[in-house]
Amino acid sequence: MAHALASVDTNAAPITQSLQLRDTLRQMLAVLEDERHALAGLEIDAIMACAVSKDSLCGRLDTTDHALVDEECRGLLDAARRLNEANRRVRNLIAANVAARLDAMTGQPALYRANAAPARIGLVR
Length: 125
What we know:
This protein has 125 residues and is mainly α. The chain has one domain. The chain has four helices and no strands. Helix 2 packs parallel to helix 4. This is Flagellar protein FlgN.
């Protein structure tokens, strides 16, 4: 994982060439792959490092002129989108598992479920 994280340059100049865009997208793919491994191993420090790297790379990608996106870049963007979506689903599954375990331990309904009535911890009076 250190390879992808070490290659993220947060002070880089705006992207002005297709080659720079491709390199940045390849870095994003590497970070997303690292995130997948970190999620599989439940390595919180690595997950957080990937989040910081993804944020930095997104900031760099925001500087890109849309005219630079060619066919190869579209393929890299699509691959990154798919991998990010897969990682999001894994994160959501982990969060749901944690919520279920907390519910089981407390014997209470979820404390932070959308549109749910507020749960109370302790005895009902």
